[in-house]
Amino acid sequence: MRTASIRLGLRENLGQFSLLVLVNAFVGAMVGLERSILPAIAEQEFHIAARAAILSFIVVFGVTKALTNYFAGRLSDRFGRKDVLVAGWLVAVPVPFILMWAPDWDWVVGANVLLGVSQGLTWSTTVIMKIDLVGPKKRGLAMGLNEFAGYFAVAISALTTGWLAARYGLRPQPFYLGVVYVAAGFLLSLLAVRETRHHVIHEVRVHQSEDHGGALSQSAIFRRTSLTDRNLSSVSQAGLVNNLNDGMAWGLFPLVFAAAGMTLAQIGILAAIYPGVWGVTQIVTGALSDRVGRKWLIVWGMWVQALGIATTALTVDFVFFGLGAVLLGIGTAMVYPTLLAAIGDVAHPTWRASAVGVYRLWRDLGYAVGALLAGMTADLFGVAAALWLVAGLTLLSGVIAALRMSETLTSRSSLPTP
Questions:
Q1: Which residues contact 363 (CB under 8 A, 6 or more apart)?
Q2: Torsion sign (Cα): 167, 94, 181, 354
Q3: pLDDT value at residue 413
Q4: pTM: predicted TM-score of the whole model, two decimal places
């Protein structure tokens, strides 16, 4: 494609953008397969009692996804976004079949290694491609739509698998959906998605007059995103803690609900409320960040998440469990697309994909940290103590962002230089 014919913007690229939203819905649905029923499978089919052992599937998922995120940005710069996206779907092909027929828990853990690699390649690439397409304007809205598609699909998939498990049993029927998700995502990515690297070239050329060279080494990008840039590193720590509490919610909330006497169908509903509210609300919060800024949405989002976790820790009632899930979903929606938009505000187009990869490395390591921390704390001191610990860490993360981060929205119109 000739760069002269390329236009940046959401409306200008609505067809491809919408297609990528649909693809990311199937990406999210793959995670939703496990969201409500895998802890029950661990307890009922494989007779695993220790919380840390049950949460092992989240640990390996988080580590493999985090590491794959880091390399996904670099690979997409080298080989193209589309090729990485298609490869991610190919890695996911065995996952639903392993979950259906796994003879022991180690096979389930192995399936989550593959799922983590697949998610790192596919979700990271859809994020990068959408940022490529929209350019500097409406970046928050674009990320809100992307994350809405992914996490609303997580919710619908979790709700559906919970219903199927209650009606037909924990395995194999709920995982039939995974075969459909993989087939649809792979075929759409292979046959309909188009490469977006040329949009980055166009964006750099458009802003050449204000750009004094954006090249950075991979080690410099890693240091800047992790530590030295106050905004990028604040975003990275908030992302890690956000997924730390998500990893806890994924692994412990179904066990908390079951201990309170909830049925499988009720657990499926509760497991769906949080990502469902998160997914839908992101459309509003992503666009809102384009108007009011990124920083305080991130700060208050972390604090609302902490309130949601505390609410869950204080109750054994279905309605109040639902309220905690709603608060957690709203808080996460305030944070999730806003963090990605802030990365896009600060990072230069020539190293933006790699910066997204570093951020997503730290963010998705939060799954592993959260699962390990929550599982070990629950085994030693009880599940309630694990919930309160994670709530406190989430509150602290918001304080760090409030003290360390400055507003990034003002950098939309001027590309930063190293």
A1: 66, 69, 236, 239, 240, 242, 243, 339
A2: positive
A3: 41
A4: 0.79
